[in-house]
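Model it.
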Amino acid sequence: MAKILGFADLHGKTEFLEFCEANDLFDVDLILCAGDLVNFFSRTKNAKTELDKVFEFFKDLPFFFVWGNVDLVQAKALSLDLSKYESLKNSLDLPMYIHNQTLKIDNLRIGGLNFFEKPPTINERVFDTDVFVSHEPPFATDLDKTFYGTHIGSDLLKRRVLQYQPKVWLCGHIHEAKGAIKIGQTQVYNCGSAERYNYVTFNL
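Modeled.
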């Protein structure tokens, strides 16, 4: 059985990573990030430094990630080349970046997708996994409900998960909607905001 740590929406708060390290939270088999490693544009213009710090933390750990909306907006606004980070390997000698691909770690299969506004061309195998990681939560659930009461998750991802039924779906994006629900047989976690020291752990 594998012990897994999941988090999302770090937004540059490396103090959370120090907190995890100090409390042995990284003493797990897999660390999965559901996007938004960097801070909002209004709060920082140094996303590259933030990313360098984050990936320095994870270089010797079993870390896997996808990009969130803020990561992609910052990269475009600041002309950041994200391929530098997408090409990194982790302590398992596997790619850290799992967008639109699947990986097998021992008996576990993981897959992921970056945040998207327009439906991308999707490798359907990312859903036929044990753990699916995305930034967006499922649409019209407790996990995508904003402070204003609106639902802004992904219906496309929700439908695919219902079709393929991965064991776990790990997501984030809506900070205030941290929680856990079931969609069919899939356990879904919105990790909440790591910026506020939220995270989830589970065993598979």
